[in-house]
Amino acid sequence: MTETVERKISVSAQPDNGTPPPPTLSQSSPSLEALKDITFGSIAGIIGKTIEYPFDTIKVRLQSQSSALPLLYTGPLDCIQQSLRADGLASLYRGVSAPLLGAAIETSSLFFSYRVAQTALRATLYPAHPSTTALPLGALVACGAASGAFTSLLLTPVELVKCQLQVPLSPSASAGPRRAAAGPVAVIAAVYRHHGLGGFWHGQLGTLIRETGGSAAWFGSYEGASSLFRRYGDRPRPAGLDDAGALLPPLPLPLWQQMLAGAAAGVSYNFVFYPADTIKSRMQTADVAERVGGVRGTFWSVGQALWRQQGVQGLYRGCGITVARAAPSSAFIFAVYEGLRGWFP
User: Fold this and answer.
1) What's the Cα-to-Cα distance from 21 to each of 24, 201, 240, 243, rounded to whole Å?
2) 195-240 pLDDT, tens per residue?
3) How many Cβ atoms are within 10 Å of 225's Cβ, its own excluded?
4) How far apart are CA 4 and CA 1, in angstroms?
5) Which backbone phi and psi does 12 adopt, to 5 degrees?
6) pTM, whole model, 2 decimals?
7) Of the candidates 102, 117, 196, which has an alpha carbon nearest to the alpha carbon of residue 149?
């Protein structure tokens, strides 16, 4: 990802009169690079979300179970069986429209802000660093954290609607969150009617923690694994300079190495800060109407209550299926993004 050449001016052979020819039009402007990040990131995010969404639905249902015992679901397999028995396969894709939009926003925002953060660091802390050479891993991790913090502001409203749609109607108050079946528009209207515009950012702290730390781990793991593949694999950096006098960028990794690095990134992203995601899901799946007139649970109060009632197991409920679906999803996201970057340099 950091191997994208920022300076893409190639110079043709010198004419006979000795006058240097003008550079070709292969130089990418910042606006064009931003458009590529948004477009390619959106496509990659939608593909990845389509693959992982049924598993994400199971994760949210496991996370949002009522604290009252016995639990509605004994585990991921039981949740899948009950969901398929009740509503069929379509139940696992309930509310998919909001997540697809969210995936496009999240992934495009992550790649866009990640590149912007790198550009800012190169202009300030690393002004002499070659543009075709990756920044130090610590700097890339910091860029990932910055991209996650920015993305969390865009993602929280989408995730709130998604979580509300993923949790089905429960037959009793003790069985789980009680919410009448509704579409995205009805959920959006209910949140705005009861809590105003600020209600869409309920759970923002959880999203901020998850996205900041998770994105640092996501990009850091991908860049670290890619660096190891380049160091010990068969794709060394080409020696020499290009026609414009700039260092040649490293050759792209083989597809299987890109996907393996992406899979490692997905596992790191989801496992490290999973408790924050659990708390956020419980906050966002609470019935909107039931929160009216009462005190809405804060990130810390919900987390403390969950810890007292269920301990570490409650904080990591659904983590196994989340990590299992994150590996292939993230592998496809990076492979698609890097592939599009290679096809449309």
Assistant:
1) 9, 54, 22, 12
2) 899 889 988 988 899 999 999 999 999 999 999 998 887 655 554 5
3) 20
4) 6
5) -80, 180
6) 0.77
7) 117
